[in-house]
Amino acid sequence: MTDIRIRHDDLSWLIAAILSAKGMRAEDAATVAEGLVWANLRGTDGHGVVRLPTYLDFIDRGQLDPRARPRPRAIGPSAIVLDCARAAGPVAMMQAARLAVETARRNAVCIVLVRETTHTGAIGRYRNGRRSRDALRS
Questions:
Q1: In this model, does residue 19 exceed pLDDT 90?
Q2: Catalytic residue among 119, 129, 131, 135
Q3: Which domains does the chain have, with CATH numbers?
């Protein structure tokens, strides 16, 4: 068997294109793709690109809504529930991390509960809730 090598940014682009073709918004598809490649680059292959066929199957079976938009609902000054409506897990987790950081900056602490989402991927990816061209390298 011959090894096939692809640059990580090209792989991320390919995954995002596949997810976009399945109806996912371009930004959300890029978020999911970055998370999968990020996991592989760190040796967490079980949460990496190997998950793509499962995500596509989730879309086909209606378990993942590629157009879903997570909606935050405050349940206190430092507590939020993120209702995800079957959104892609990486999309939900990036939003949850972003909300937690923003709220904690104002109130010194925050907890965000995430509900009705799909596989979230490698949890370590969601440190600050920001996408970045350098995310794959950090």
A1: yes
A2: 119
A3: 8-125 (1.10.1530.10)
